[in-house]
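Entry type: protein chain
Record version: 2
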Amino acid sequence: MTVNAEPLHVREDEVELSAIRAQGAGGQNVNKVSSAIHLRFDIAASSLPDDVKERLLALHDSRITKDGILVLKAQQHRTQEMNRFDALIRLHELVNSVAQPPKTRKPTKPTRASVRRVRQAKTQRSEVKATRARVLHEH
């Protein structure tokens, strides 16, 4: 297990960027200018390490297609350049969020005191429930 101190970088030639018209309000300008950016990134064909690819594909993210292509749409800003920058930043953030492998869980044993407390609580609870039971009258 290697620990990467520096963040991973996605090569520019592995990313497909296309300009599209943004949705929503914006007056006449929104209908004329293609300022939104559609980013497509093929995870399987990328130069990322195999373990990072696996973790990316394992994410249950609606932006990742069944074919393993990550699709990001950036339309927050008014200019195409800012949206392009935003899409690339979001791509790098997503890739670097899975760059570190998750820590493996080491199972621990409960302490004697905690086991004793649990048993005491169970005994107390069973006594409470026993007092609620129907009383049978003996004649």
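Comment: Residues 12-97 form a domain with the Double Stranded RNA Binding Domain fold (CATH 3.30.160.20).
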